Amino acid sequence: MITLGNWQKSSFSGGGQGDACVEVAHRHPHIAIRDSKVPTRATLTFPAEAFTAFINRLAKEL
Predict the structure, then answer these.
(1) Is 27 helix (H, G, I), strand (E, B) or coil?
(2) CA distance between the termini of the chain
């Protein structure tokens, strides 16, 4: 579960230091995404509804 303001990364983020992934954070009413290897760089933000639709579609494809 993504809590407001906290960056979360997948439990499938890979070996090593676990930094080969993206992180997401809930920034009401948006979802923010950043690269875990360079967290100080820019983030992408999406309306929460659009991000949810994207994830749901992705899950159906897997």
Answers:
(1) strand
(2) 20
Q: What's residue 17's pLDDT?
A: 66
Residues 6+ apart with CB under 8 A from 38: none
pTM over 0.85: no
Average pLDDT over residues 16-32: 82
In the chain, the DSSP E strands lie at: 8-9, 22-27, 30-35, 44-47
When pLDDT is cut at 50, 70 and 90, the band that residue 28 belongs to is confident
How many Cα atoms within 13 Å fall on the side-chain side of residue 48? 9
Residue 37's φ and ψ, nearest 5 degrees, are -75, -30
Listed as own residue / partner, the contacts of 23-28 with beta carbons closer than 8 Å and 24 or more positions apart are 26/2, 28/4
How confident is the model at residue 22, as a pLDDT? Answer: 86
